[in-house]
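Loading example: each entry is read as two labelled lines plus one structure line.
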Amino acid sequence: MNILVCITSVPDTTAKITFTDNDTKLNKAGVQLIIGPYDDYALSRAVELKEQAAGKVTVLHVGGADADPQIRKALALGADEAIRVDVEPADSYDTAVQIAHIARQNSYDLILMGRESIDYNSGIVHGLVAEMLDLPSYSPVMKLDINGSTATITREIDGGKEVLEASLPLVLGCQEPIAEWKSPSMKGIMTARTKPLQVVPPVETEQLSVTGKYTLPAPKGACKMIPADAAETLIRLLQTEAKVI
Amino acid sequence: MSVLIYIELDKGSVKKTSFGAIQYGAMIAAKLGTTTTALSLGTANSSELEQAGHHGAAKVLHVADPRLDHENSLAYAEALVQAAEQEESEVIIIPKSGLGDAVAARAGARLKAAVVSGITGLPEITGDTFRVTKRIFSGKAFASIDMAAARKILVIQKNAIETDENATGSPAQVEAFSPVLSEAGFKAKVISTEKVTNEISLTEAEIIVSGGRGLKGPENWHLLLDLASALGAATGCSKPVSDLDWRPHHEHIGQTGIKVTPGLYIACGISGAIQHLAGVNGSRCIVVINKDPEAPFFKSADYGIVGDIFEILPRLTDAARKLR
């Protein structure tokens, strides 16, 4: 089985977000970059599936060289090889075009990624890639089993979940608890150094949207404190002042 | 050339968030000097669909194919693309959800549209510039984006605008619509479906009461459920609470759980870790009740009470009951 796992390289969930270059770039100084948490689960499941049935896991990242440590970590977690498309993508569409281009050159039975990146939170790349490749896609997938060419998927739907069976190839957006969360072993870290990381140029895309400035949320006004012995006042304030009940 | 709005149904009725999306679309249509058309997929009662008119839709295209009662991003996108072509819609509005994102992505790829998901507020439209603001970094920041393609798909956050519940337009004209749906969309076999019933959905709820480890155990949850029922609220919890199995996983609110944007979020015994804040920072009003005055959540709150939640919750419940 041939699995492609697309990973993002994003600031750690606890990072304080600031911008530079006149608010047009993320300030990466002092920010710890990690593999996107949802992508991490997708990768872990891919490695588990590869261990069950013979196969290969390829990690793909669309972005600059500052993601190489995260790509090496993915290799340390058990991926066999990596590809980095060397471009800062303009938007989700650009990212999807690059992923679809790589996918067309190989035949993958599964294309996995996180349900969304935790920087842009759009959750649309899997759908875009699937449409470009004319494949079915499901997200968010919480459980995935493969039997021959059939995938059994548990996904979240509005107000619940459902189990379905679909034929490979598929594109899936993943989230916990699809796999055990893993940290790399010493052996993994050692072997990752010599696994292939291929850097390829991007294909040209049309730019459908242009990102301008970033802004931080307006500072919250002071929190109005209500004494515990007058807790009932809160309900009145919520009704008459905040007008939310 | 109308503004097209994809509306979601819940048991044959239009969801509240979709009424909000219609009002949002109608405001853009007014700005562009055009009309508003809604698209509804699956079994629905015509009189329910006519209500879209009260919120500003002149027309509802209804695809009454029962196969679409089941979430299906591929078939939904095919229907949306054909509706957009028939109506010559350049602006398409979709309420944000996992399904909404998937439909937007597929339709966007087919239409070569600019797709932006997580939009807050109305777009700024001046001359040829169509500028939107979207949430990024789970609400820790915002990005301003110019949607440059001729067709634009806007996936909007709940509460992107203040909606008027007592909208009073005339009923919409409901038209049957029969797009060509490919077999490819119906190949997957559904083995089982499990839906939580009789609960207010977290993503739809206007009020959410949420609990953390401060409640000390699942046996104390009735205090929180009582307040929620008095307020007509949905209930949520922090990650540690769902990790400890005090509450089901689908109630977990936060960066890696459900992200919510209700009008009112009441956090009981939740300290306010940055990952939890990422799931709630789009709420209009936040109330924090915690015994620790240093809990970081107070910094993000509009109202706060420092004290014992076991005493405070029943008092709030009593006060809330008196309102009804």
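Chain A has a mean pLDDT of 95.
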